[in-house]
Amino acid sequence: MTEDAPAGATLTFDGRPIPFRPGQTVGAALTAQGIVSWRTTRREHTERGLFCGIGVCFDCLVTVDGQRVQRACITPACDGQDVRSEHPDTALPIPGEQA
Ligand code: FES
């Protein structure tokens, strides 16, 4: 749980260390570091980040520890987590097939 995050806990975002406080979500940790967009839309390539902030709109998608399509606004930040921006032109994996 994020409440147990050690002092000085960090995740990485596209390889960049991002510190966070216990209880923060990935989206909150990114925003606190001034990172407000981390994916683009498929057609218009407009930037997206937090919008609803409650897990409803899916604007905040990221890849977390290799798991694509995770909502940053509801994903607890964890020490050592590998968070990556989403690229909409990359096909999603087909369940049961190797990536
Ligand atoms: S900001 Fe809407 S689902 Fe995350």
UniProtKB/TrEMBL annotation:
User: In which domain of life is the source organism classified?
Assistant: Bacteria
Going by the UniProt record, its keywords in alphabetical order are: Oxidoreductase
In this chain, the stretch annotated as Disordered covers: 80-99
The entry lists its GO molecular-function terms as: iron-sulfur cluster binding; oxidoreductase activity
Per its record, how is this protein called by name?
(2Fe-2S)-binding protein
Q: Which organism is it from?
A: Microbacterium oryzae
